[in-house]
């Protein structure tokens, strides 16, 4: 076999896992998962900034994301409550359809409010989108993890991140383009259609093969087990408290930085078209490349080392925005900062999400992943909503992004210590038990 033929075969072997049925389904689930985030994240931030809303009020709107961090409170319902009539389609499929409809209705409601006349009503509408999007995420994450085989968790996480990024970027870009032409109301209404890919995926593929119903009969004892069971099972594992501490700490700096980028771009004088080209366009492709590289690193380096590497990379990426803020408005500078940040986030999106997916027990997939994903960003979102605007106004963007870089260090050190103590291997659940030893 020639070198060219061998290289072609290696390339095909690398790509093949990404085009299998389950990872492809994870992609379409990710598309629908990403768009509600865009509606109350960068898109709403831009809308409020362009309407002349004060920075403190704009960053306070990121508290709407805290609804995502509370989704563990009702995630057990998705695991344990069977919906009447539509429930015949299956536990995951029926909830997927209901949650999708709720998201579309919430986004339509946000489209109808006017921030300039009622900021409070806009806040309520954003919170409703957050609640509906969080419920949608609960079902989507459970469906994805149960649909993927243990050996597909890395690739499936990558495809899910591909979908999430495409869904959030496409919805955000579509909203910006339509807002300049038909206004924000029509832009939001059009974006509600992004809920459809996940709903159609559930209808076409049906119930996941690895789904395990935690409730045999619907008595009060079983209901309590569906609520307490996920927590009890997780905290029985060795090192569970350190694992939880890592989940809480690892993304503080990244979350704090990401939710303020649009404020930086607006203050630096970038137009909507420039944001669409550099933030969304270049960032989009850099993220896709990062995801693909993340899949390769996960396969070559193993879960533990690839997660540690991605944590370091994501921490350093925040520094690029301190450099951009110091440089001043520069299209090349913005492209470099956005490109590096998205490349690092793409790698982390594969490795860290695969690890968090592996933490789940298949009896409590929805509830446990809701707990994990909610805990992963709650501190950063709370700090953004309560202090980010004031910190930026007091210290400026350069020092603010240097602070976010420093905040990444505790999570990196903790994960390294967990590796040394063997707690990474001990922390995984039944979602990964068929994988064998973790490298």
Write the layout of secondary structure elements.
Layout: H1 3-15, H2 21-40, H3 42-50, H4 55-60, H5 66-69, H6 72-80, H7 91-112, H8 119-147, H9 153-182, H10 184-191, H11 196-205, H12 220-235, H13 240-249, H14 252-258, H15 261-267, H16 272-301, H17 303-327, H18 331-358, H19 365-406, H20 409-421, H21 423-427
Explained architecture:
The chain is mainly α and 439 residues long. The protein has a single domain (16-435), classed as MFS general substrate transporter like domains (Growth Hormone, Chain: A). It has 21 helices and no strands. Helix 7 (91-112) runs antiparallel to helix 11, helix 16 (272-301) packs across helix 18 and helix 17 runs antiparallel to helix 20. The longest helix has 42 residues, at 365-406. The chain is globular, with a radius of gyration of 21 Å. The two termini are 31 Å apart. 53% of the residues are buried. Residues 2-8 and 435-439 have low confidence and may be disordered.
User: Could you state the oligomeric state of the chains shown?
Assistant: single chain
Helical content (DSSP H or I, runs of 4+): over 70%
| CATH architecture tag | Up-down Bundle
Q: Per DSSP, what share of the residues sits in E-state strands of 2 or more residues?
A: under 5%
What shape does the CA trace take?
globular
**Helix-strand string:** HHHHHHHHHHHHHHHHHHHHH
Q: Work out the number of β strands.
A: 0
Question: How confident is the prediction overall: mean pLDDT?
Answer: 81
What would you call the structural class? Answer: mainly alpha
